[in-house]
Amino acid sequence: MRTLFALLTCLSIINLALADDDDDVKPSKPASNSDTSKLQLASPTEKLAGIKTQALQAAQQQAEFTAFGKVVNLEPLLQLRQQYLAANAQQQSAKARYTEAQLNLTRTQNLHSQDIVSSRRLQEQQAQSLADRANLDASAYQQQTLLENSKLEWGNTLSAWFTTSNHPQAEQFLKHSAQLIQITLPANSELGQGVSQIFIDAHGQRQNAIPATLISASPHIDPLTQGQRYFFKTQAKSLPYGSHITAWIAGNGKPTNGVLIPASAIVRQTGQSFVFIKTADGQFNRRPLPQLLNTPKGYLALDNVQVGEEVVISGAQTLLSEQLKSQIPDEDDD
Question: DSSP for 227-256?
């Protein structure tokens, strides 16, 4: 009987010890918080996650509208350039022959007046001068026709670039350091005064857009939408000919004020955009950003954040995962 009592006593002591151990383990799991937007991390965890923050700054964004276009194949312009410069060389040659014929005609006229050469010789020289003048006029007409046809297709500026020998702007295209872009504006839209630069991207991503500089308006409009077309030049990267381009063009409205959010700070869940704001050491608050505008430097937030707040720019996705994990109920919880 004493042995049985001693055994029961030992089992009770072991059970109490195990219960104490369970009490020591449970607090290591973050306690659930009624405010699911808040997260608190221990200092070692924050360091391991590589959390980096940056103070938010005010920014402005000019209202933009989108347009579409393509990367233009330069082959027609190169053919124009070759034909025009060849015609120009022919004209220079014809001009030289005509100048020589005029000198010969003057000399022959002087000799004929002194009865040194016959009238037949004078007539032959006059005929040669007329023929050389006709060749000069024909070469000039050919050259002018090429130039006017180019203006009808490409406009005055591009035509001037590609019909001038060693023109610095044309050389950029010939050396593949620049590309020609044609953009078609939406119907009833026009390029605002003072707009000399737009931003383009072949994948429709505003944050990756590169600048393009205005060359001139195209002589043609889109036959389907009746939208005005413009030529632009880009030097940022090489795009395949024929690539479809999305363009972002500054509108005429007033700039929009907001807070600049770096692209690396944005995390997304269930189709919504969020950022994590550091409120204290180890404390973070997840903020939804319902109104965001794409800009070349990131995103412009119109509400829910303030200038000077510390936004997480590295490790935001880790914080989101940690927050979602902390919201999962413990299997031991009743």
Answer: -EEEEEEE-SS---TT-EEEEEEE-SSPPE
Note whether 261 and 242 are within 8 A (CB): no
Residues 166 and 213 in one domain: no
Residue type, 279: T
- Domain edge (last residue) among 124, 154, 172: 172
CA distance 72 to 230: 12
Out of 119, 141, 172, pick the residue that ends a domain.
172
Assigned domain for 21 exists: no
Tens-level pLDDT at each residue, the chain (334 residues): 444 344 344 434 434 343 444 443 333 333 333 456 788 876 666 676 688 999 999 998 877 889 999 999 999 999 999 999 998 888 888 888 888 888 888 888 888 888 887 888 888 888 888 887 888 888 888 888 999 999 999 999 999 999 998 999 999 999 999 999 999 999 988 888 889 999 999 999 887 889 999 999 999 999 999 999 999 999 977 889 999 999 999 887 778 899 999 999 999 988 899 999 999 988 999 999 998 887 778 899 999 999 999 999 999 998 998 888 876 665 555 4
Domain total of the chain: 3
Domain limits for position 191: 65-72+178-250
